[in-house]
């Protein structure tokens, strides 16, 4: 297990649990898990389920509780069906709570965020989610240490060593999955892992660790806008790969601004270009002026930027520079997470952007308010503490540089280890933070392992949180249902 493990059961009483913690901090104890009966209407049918919020402890090698991980679980009411799946959901960051998948994408209730026009002051009241997975799987949303209400009970240095790195993150979160299954008597249920962004990085590693270290088989993995391979960002000034990976998403932004419909057929031309002519012309560099001229012309056409700007960049269009140039004349800034979601630029004369991302800055308020209200008022888990929807301190404390890590190897190992396991990867075309073409390249490079349909890639109009658009949210639901064998 490494340097720590998670207990399967909490102490019998709050007093015993408090004594057992021997915490380095002076925090009030968490309450016992709380539950509430709820319902949601989906396609004309009422689904009754139980929502539970609680915490599982993390112990070090000596048995001392060093952290408490909060989860939100939704379990369908009625007689227990041994064939009903349970899905464990993680968001990313590192430093993000699971609220985005929970209240934005797949949970039974949702609050709107992540689309053009959404604002921090928008209503945080939850409504039935027409795209929920509740009809075909129970769901457990897990907040890693330092996110949501989850917390470390040791000092900053020990917290960093215990939680804020790839290896330790996978070890303790895998044990949280194991312990929830054990505590809730779901060890024999079909099991799925889903993760968004860095949660998509976690997905393959969690799956392989569960398979090989904890003895838990995973039936399927759904990766939402995954950060898959940080090494695709690297390569220095002489590698064409980072520039090739983002160009299709820039083209998607340009196409959408022109009112074109985004689909795989629309994107096929630019994908073919970056796989062929772009790579060869890029590598010729200054030795072939005609190649440079061709590259500048093509990149200009695909991005919609001015030719002189693309030429100044040598055909190497950085994604953030692309956003800056795209909206410079409009006094607006575009989001790295969905390049066609914009906000006013408070410093339009500045060479560099001096404000936050239009999507990230706008979603913190509605997601935080909605989740805190749901947890404390609706479910009745009366916690005393700050809710961290997106914790920058955790991100800063992370010991691994994202440009040096990848989870593709873990994906290959997990697929080879279990020939029945399925994988679905879903993206938004406009996402510059986790470009869909990285995943497309990863899938195309996987060796044959069983049926061709075991690993599927789907892309939809929108960005990182493409599910904020109704048509894309509905399309993802249909595709995932099919993977689960429910549709």
TrEMBL record:
Q: Does the keyword Protease apply?
A: yes
- Give one GO molecular function term: serine-type carboxypeptidase activity
Report if keyword Chaperone is assigned. no
Q: Which SUPFAM superfamilies match?
A: alpha/beta-Hydrolases
Compositional bias (Low complexity) spans? 1-16
What keywords sit in the KW lines?
Answer: Carboxypeptidase, Glycoprotein, Hydrolase, Protease, Signal
Q: What Gene3D superfamilies does this protein map onto?
A: alpha/beta hydrolase (3.40.50.1820)
Give the residue ranges for region: Disordered.
Answer: 1-37
Any one Gene Ontology biological process term? proteolysis
Q: Can you tell which superkingdom this protein's organism belongs to?
A: Bacteria
Under PANTHER family, the record lists: RETINOID-INDUCIBLE SERINE CARBOXYPEPTIDASE, SERINE PROTEASE FAMILY S10 SERINE CARBOXYPEPTIDASE
**Name listed for the protein in its UniProt record:** Peptidase S10
């Amino acid at each position: 297990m490494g340097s720590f493990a998670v207990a399967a059961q909490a102490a019998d009483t709050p007093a015993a649990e408090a004594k057992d913690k021997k915490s380095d901090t002076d925090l009030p104890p968490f309450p016992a898990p709380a539950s509430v009966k709820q319902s949601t209407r989906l396609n004309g049918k009422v689904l009754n389920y139980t929502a539970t919020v609680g915490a599982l402890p993390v112990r070090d090698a000596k048995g001392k509780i060093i952290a408490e991980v909060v989860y939100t679980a939704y379990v369908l009411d009625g007689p227990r069906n041994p064939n009903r799946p349970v899905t464990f959901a993680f968001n990313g960051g590192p430093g993000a709570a699971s609220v985005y998948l929970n209240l934005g994408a797949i949970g039974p209730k949702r609050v709107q965020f992540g689309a053009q026009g959404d604002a921090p002051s928008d209503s945080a009241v939850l409504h039935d989610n027409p795209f929920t997975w509740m009809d075909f799987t129970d769901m457990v949303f897990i907040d890693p240490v330092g996110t949501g209400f989850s917390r470390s009970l040791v000092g900053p240095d020990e917290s960093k060593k215990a939680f804020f790195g790839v290896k330790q993150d996978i070890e303790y979160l895998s044990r949280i999955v194991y312990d929830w299954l054990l505590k809730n008597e779901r060890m024999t249920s079909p099991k799925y892992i889903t993760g968004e962004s860095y949660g998509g990085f976690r997905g393959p590693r969690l799956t392989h660790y569960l398979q090989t270290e904890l003895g838990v088989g995973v039936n399927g993995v759904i990766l939402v806008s995954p950060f898959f391979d940080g090494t695709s960002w690297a390569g220095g000034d002489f590698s064409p790969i980072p520039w090739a990976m983002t160009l299709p998403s820039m083209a998607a932004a340009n196409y959408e601004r022109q009112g074109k419909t985004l689909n795989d057929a629309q994107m096929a031309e630019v994908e073919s270009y970056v796989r062929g002519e772009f790579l060869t012309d890029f590598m010729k560099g200054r030795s072939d002026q005609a190649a440079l001229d061709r590259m500048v012309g093509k990149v200009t056409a695909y991005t919609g930027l001015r030719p002189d700007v693309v030429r100044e960049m040598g055909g190497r269009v950085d994604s953030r520079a692309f956003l800056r140039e795209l909206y410079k004349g409009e006094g607006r800034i575009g989001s790295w997470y969905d390049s066609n979601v914009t906000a006013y630029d408070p410093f339009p004369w500045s060479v560099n952007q001096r404000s936050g991302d239009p999507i990230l800055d706008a979603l913190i308020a509605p997601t935080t308010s909605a989740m805190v209200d749901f947890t404390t008022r609706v479910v009745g888990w009366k916690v005393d503490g700050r809710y961290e929807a997106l914790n920058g301190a955790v991100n800063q404390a992370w010991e691994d540089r994202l440009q040096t890590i990848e989870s593709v190897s873990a994906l290959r190992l997990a697929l080879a280890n279990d020939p029945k396991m399925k994988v679905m990867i879903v993206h938004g075309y406009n996402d510059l933070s986790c470009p869909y073409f990285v995943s497309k390249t990863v899938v195309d490079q996987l060796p044959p392992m069983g049926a061709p349909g075991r690993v599927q890639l789907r892309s939809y109009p929108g960005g990182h949180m493409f599910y904020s658009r109704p048509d894309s949210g509905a399309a993802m639901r249909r595709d995932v249902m099919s993977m689960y064998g429910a549709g």
